[in-house]
Each structure stands twice: as structure tokens, then as C-alpha cells.
Design brief:
Alpha-Beta Plaits, two-stranded antiparallel sheet, 6 strands, 38% strand, elongated
Length: 118
């Protein structure tokens, strides 16, 4: 069974998370910059004036993995994204019933990993 992992993290932790996931066996991730509203707020100072911004900038990461990679990937994600402060982010995990590699037509977890990877 394949899993989909979505994580919303601090932008400043992206490089640490990317490296940690790679070490945990996750070789491909999709990411983009997002904005959200939560309990944590950010303020910016421009020319000596403090502005309270209600939208907080974060990075969203999405990857798909086999079940056997899930626990190491989540542990790596938590350890590398954590600062201990409010606003460290969230992780969401869902099951994927199937996936298809467009180029070859392979389906299931073979669509996510290259031949020979176990």
C-alpha cells in the first residue's frame, strides 16, 4: 500500500527537511510556497514601522512512499522541521489506492520507485 504524505513546514526548515527525507529513502518530493492563517502570527518591520501580517508563509511538501518507508520518513520530517515553537507545521498522511507511471504504464508502488528498488 502506498501512502501520501503532506507536510506544511517553516520555509526556513526546508533544506533541513529535504536532506533528512533523502537520507530516509525519499528521493522525490513536490513542494511549493503557501500562505495560511493560524494561531501563530508574523510581523514585519519596514522602514521602522511594524506590520502585522495575518497570512503566514510556509512551504508545503508532498511525497508518496511505500508503507515500509513511512515511519522513517515521518521521523526524519518531524526531527528536521521541529523548532519547538508554535507554528512548526503539520503532517497529514493518507492512503493511495493506485498510481500509474505515465511513461511505462506501471501501476501501484512500481509507479513511484525505479525497477530494482526494494
Amino acid at each position: 500500500m502506498m501512502k501520501k504524505v503532506e507536510a506544511i513546514i517553516r520555509k526556513t526548515k526546508f533544506d533541513d527537511v529535504k536532506e533528512a527525507l533523502n537520507e530516509a529513502g525519499i528521493e522525490f518530493i513536490t513542494f511549493w510556497d503557501v500562505r495560511g492563517v493560524g494561531k501563530a502570527t508574523q510581523s514585519r518591520v519596514y522602514r521602522g514601522v511594524k506590520y502585522d501580517t495575518s497570512a503566514i508563509e510556509r512551504t508545503m511538501i508532498v511525497f508518496y512512499c511505500r508503507e515500509k518507508y513511512l515511519k522513517p520518513a515521518i521521523a526524519a520530517l518531524q526531527a528536521s522541521a521541529k523548532t519547538g515553537a508554535i507554528g512548526d507545521g503539520k503532517i497529514f498522511i493518507s492512503e493511495i489506492s493506485d498510481g500509474i507511471r505515465i511513461r511505462t504504464g506501471e501501476s501501484g508502488d512500481k509507479a513511484v520507485y525505479l525497477e530494482g528498488q526494494e
